[in-house]
Amino acid sequence: MRFVSTRDKNNTVTFKEAVLNSIPSDGGLYVPADSENLRRWILYANETTSFASLAGALTSALINTEFSPIICETIATHAFSHDPVLKKLDDNLFVLELFHGATGTAKDFGVSYLAATLETILQMDGEKSILLDTTTGGLGASMAHALRDKKLLKSVLLYPKGKVRGLREQDFVWNGGNLYPIEVDGTEADCRKLMRSVFADRELVQKYHLTVANTANIGRLLPQSFFYTFAFSRLKKFIDGDIYYALAAGNYGNVVAGLYGWKASLPVNGFIVPTTANIKLDVQGNCTLLDSVVPVQKRTSIDPSDPSNLERLEQVFKANALILRSFVYPADVSKEQREQACKQLFMKYGVYADQETCGAYAAALARSDVVEAEDGAVVLIDRLAPAYDSAFIQHCIGEDPEQPDTVAKALAPISLDRPMLAPGDLESLISILNSLNLLRLF
């Protein structure tokens, strides 16, 4: 499989190049250049197939011209030590829980896969790389776990003041680990501005072999498409009708990943999402993308510090606008509807759910006309351990969900006991990147 930029169809690269470079020089995002029919792999998987085994097989099928099946299996085995959990709530409603990993979020899957893929590529090429990202804690906690056994990767993480959490001292570069957390004496916006300044200089990116661990990197996004195949491998013994996935749009990577699964011949009939600033209902009640009226060539470059996958979503529908109406079903969801959905999930099914999952459930209830008309089943995509949103759940149902040890550790604040970086201090950030290169810290 080859990958192409959303801004230039002639900018075509290999999977390895897309993962290593992450952001095309034209300011777009890498997307699959063509579709692969993975139907025989998808139909072969069943309830005994582990997520690691499934991911290895699908990776091999997608990028077989670059990596051998053994290498693909090795990547998946190193990346995934746990499976998602599919639960049946009733005959027509299921929930796919993606929060049973190291930090209690779905990020654990994508970050682990990206780290394992990068380490494998770098080992084959005899190179090293630095991941540069901005975070308020969640990404950093996942990165800490994903990089603990890596030899060729380092991660520089920019945190706004007071937001460092979920790390261990032995993970830090100055203690022999792979993380270099930097606390910036400012806001998240200050951190993002610093990161954008670095990536705006292509010479710096090439000099330090910089890439990102957020969903701008196709290597982070791709494994999210495996969630839907995994769900289907468990669902097919329960249902014969149509399958709809209800999920929060987030930065649109969730929807894009599901559509990549559909393009690879995954049996799915649609994705139900709460409306967002960009995904709306038109006057006929059909899905419309507001940004699509602006040509990509006239847009600013993708923000490497806070990417949106909306451009990838547009690219999926570019060939046939009717697909948008046939596969994405938005619903306006109010605050009151989210709260009522939280109560219903708990009272009817005993499920604690965060605001995003409750919003997806409320959207599914609002679009019951679509699902029921096709005698379909709905799968809720639940990406976050309930304890992360305990205040919302407490407000809705009067009870606090239990906080697992994994979540407690991921939320634990950390004092770096090191000088903070001043907002806009690009020179000091470059000096840190340079130290990772010159001092042979990896």
Quick tags:
442 residues; alpha/beta
Give a structural overview.
The protein has helices at about 15-20, 40-45, 50-60, 70-80, 105-125, 140-145, 190-200, 200-205, 220, 225-235, 255-265, 310-315, 320-325, 335-350, 355-365, 370-375, 390-395, 405-410, 425-440, and strands at about 5, 10-15, 30, 85-90, 95, 130-135, 155-160, 180-185, 210, 245, 270-275, 280, 285-290, 330, 375-380. The protein is an alpha/beta fold. It has a 6-stranded mixed β-sheet with strand order 4-5-15-10-11-14. The protein has a 4-stranded parallel β-sheet with strand order 8-7-6-9, sandwiched between helices. A 3-stranded antiparallel β-sheet has the order 2-1-3. The longest helix has 19 residues, at about 105-125. The two termini are about 30 Å apart.
Give the tally of β-strands: 15
Q: Major β-sheet, in short?
A: 6 strands, mixed
**What is the distance, rounded to the nearest whole angstrom, between the alpha carbons of the first and last residues?**
31 Å
Give the overall silhouette: globular
Measured as a percent range, the helix fraction is: 40-55%
How are the elements arranged and paired?
Blueprint: E1 3-5, E2 12-13, H1 15-21, E3 30-32, H2 39-44, H3 51-62, H4 69-79, E4 85-90, E5 93-97, H5 107-125, E6 129-134, H6 138-146, E7 153-160, E8 179-184, H7 188-199, H8 202-207, E9 210-211, H9 218-221, H10 226-235, E10 243-246, H11 253-263, E11 270-274, E12 279-281, E13 287-289, H12 310-317, H13 321-327, E14 328-331, H14 335-349, H15 355-366, H16 368-373, E15 377-382, H17 390-397, H18 405-411, H19 426-438
Parallel strand pairs: 5-15, 6-7, 6-9, 7-8, 10-11, 10-15, 11-14
Antiparallel strand pairs: 1-2, 1-3, 4-5, 12-13
Helix pairs in contact: 3-4, 3-10, 4-5, 5-6, 11-12, 14-15, 14-17
